Amino acid sequence: MFKRINTTNFSSIFSLVAFVLFCLFSPFAVKAQNVRIACIGNSITFGARLDKPDIESYPAVLAEMLKANNYQNYEIKNFGIGGATILRFGTPNLWRLLDSLPAFVPDIVVIKAGTNETVGKPRLNWEHIDEFEKDYSDYIAKIRKVNPNCKIIICSPLDMVIQTEELSPERITDLSGRRPRIWELRKRIKKIANTENTYFLDLTSPFKGKANLMTKKDGVHPNKDGYQYLASLVYDYLVKRKIVVK
Q1: N or C: which end of the chain has fewer CB within 10 A?
Q2: According to the model, what pLDDT value does residue 233 have?
């Protein structure tokens, strides 16, 4: 004798399967939202001295590292401006970027500033360094207005390497005067991180004496290998602190 099929249960199973297939293949299916990372900074963030900064800058390399290690749905945008400072006084400065941040709404922000703050006459940035902490704190507050839940990593500037090949005597004199200021800013930025409850990433110490990672005749901007190394430092920090997750 045949058992009677429970059409109610069959109908429920069919409906469930149909719903799952719809979710998977429908053009209206909801996709996982990207986590947006904004890399804000000066020419070193932009990728100065590189032939192809769009693919060789540290934000571009960082994006590839995340993808290669199965960190999916991360969108990175390069907000680097050559010569920029976080000091409001500086020209150019990073404050003009705040107008474009609301269109991106970053979930994670990496700020690398300080190199151009060490410049004295004729730009006079260092002469305004007493404004550094307030300007930096105000900048962080502006980012948090865009996204109150944003995770912010503030980085100390890369060390200047006097041992870089083919530096002119004039360049050595200039960098020798500015380099102690880099290390002073490292301490000041670390204190800002503690005060503002942000993450702090030391990029000064890892580049100390790394002449092989610097552009010849320059001593400030990394070469291609240096940008790769910079990206790896940021990547390792994001992963170890679980700021990015799979």
Answers
A1: N
A2: 98
Predicted pLDDT at 2: 44
Give the chain's end-to-end CA distance (angstroms, integer): 54
What would you measure as the largest C-alpha separation in the chain, in angstroms? 102
Break the chain into its structural domains and give their ranges: 33-240
Q: Is 66 exposed, middle or buried (0-12, 13-18, 19+ CB in 10 A)?
A: buried
Whether 31 shows a pLDDT value over 60: the answer reads: no
Q: Which residues contact 118 (CB under 8 A, 6 or more apart)?
A: 125, 126, 157, 178, 179, 181, 182, 185
DSSP 58-77: HHHHHHHHHHHTT--SEEEE
* Domain range 33-240, CATH class: alpha beta
What's the burial of 17, exposed, middle or buried (CB within 10 Å: 0-12/13-18/19+)? Answer: exposed
Tell me the average pLDDT across 133-143: 98
Across the range 217-226, mean pLDDT stands at 98
Give the HSE-up count for residue 235: Cα atoms under 13 Å, Cβ half-sphere.
21
